[in-house]
């Protein structure tokens, strides 16, 4: 009887061990997640606008305007107005840089400020006649891009005309603005700034 009991226990232990060994799961392969950075897709409008700036002749200024409208003609005229407004904005910025450079250490600060503001107002009221539309493109669905450009000679003519109209306010500033290196440096600094796309007024 004891012998039979020992045999039964031995069989039971064998079955348990066999079951336990058989139930062990097979080792799972290590799964590694790899994140690959993808370059964002550039907006073709921004690519075209950036190319227009990069390819502009040295010393010129580029104005970029964008308009979205179901009426293509209206979108085109609005985009052109915005491009020309951007030209004006940059010319005013260049003018400020030239005035600041010409008046460092000036003792006639109120006259300088008045002169600067008067020139800026005159420039802002102008339409840049020399600004040429050098590129236009329609992007889906109704987004119009216009690119205008003005040459260094036209920029100088606009600034000189506006400043001479107010020369009595600060004659020493007007005379001191026209060193070639002042305009060159002001244009260089302006064109080093990020591209501005005007899509609103």
CATH topology: Thiol Ester Dehydrase, Chain A
Strand portion, in percent?
5-15%
Name of the level-1 CATH class = Alpha Beta
Biggest sheet architecture: 4 strands, mixed
Your description of this structure?
With 201 residues, this protein is α+β, with helices and mostly antiparallel strands. It has one domain (44-198): Roll (Thiol Ester Dehydrase, Chain A), CATH 3.10.129. It has 7 helices and 4 strands. The protein has a 4-stranded mixed beta sheet. It is globular. The termini are far apart. The mean pLDDT is 82.
Note the topology.
Layout: H1 2-23, H2 44-54, E1 61-68, H3 72-102, H4 109-124, E2 132-139, E3 143-150, H5 152-164, H6 171-176, H7 180-192, E4 197-198
Parallel strand pairs: 1-4
Antiparallel strand pairs: 1-3, 2-3
Summarize the structure.
With 201 residues, the chain is of the alpha+beta class. It contains seven helices and four strands. A hairpin with a 3-residue loop joins strand 2 (132-139) and strand 3.
């Amino acid at each position: 009887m004891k012998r039979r009991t020992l045999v039964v226990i031995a069989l039971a232990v064998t079955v348990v061990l066999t079951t336990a060994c058989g139930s062990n799961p097979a080792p799972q392969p290590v799964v590694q997640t790899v994140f690959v950075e993808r370059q964002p897709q550039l907006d073709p409008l921004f690519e075209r606008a950036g190319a227009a700036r990069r390819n502009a002749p040295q010393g010129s200024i580029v104005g970029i305007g964008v308009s979205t409208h179901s009426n293509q003609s209206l979108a085109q005229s609005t985009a052109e107005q915005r491009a020309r407004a951007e030209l004006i904005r940059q010319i005013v910025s260049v003018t400020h840089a030239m005035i600041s450079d010409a008046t460092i250490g000036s003792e006639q600060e109120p006259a300088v400020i008045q002169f600067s503001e008067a020139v800026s107002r005159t420039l802002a009221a102008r339409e840049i006649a020399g600004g040429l539309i050098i590129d236009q493109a329609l992007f889906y669905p109704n987004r119009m891009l216009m690119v205008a450009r003005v040459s260094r000679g036209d920029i100088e003519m606009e600034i000189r005309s506006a400043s001479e109209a107010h020369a009595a306010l600060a004659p020493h500033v007007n005379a001191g603005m026209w060193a070639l290196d002042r305009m060159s440096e002001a244009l260089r600094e302006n064109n080093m700034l990020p591209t501005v796309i005007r899509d609103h007024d």
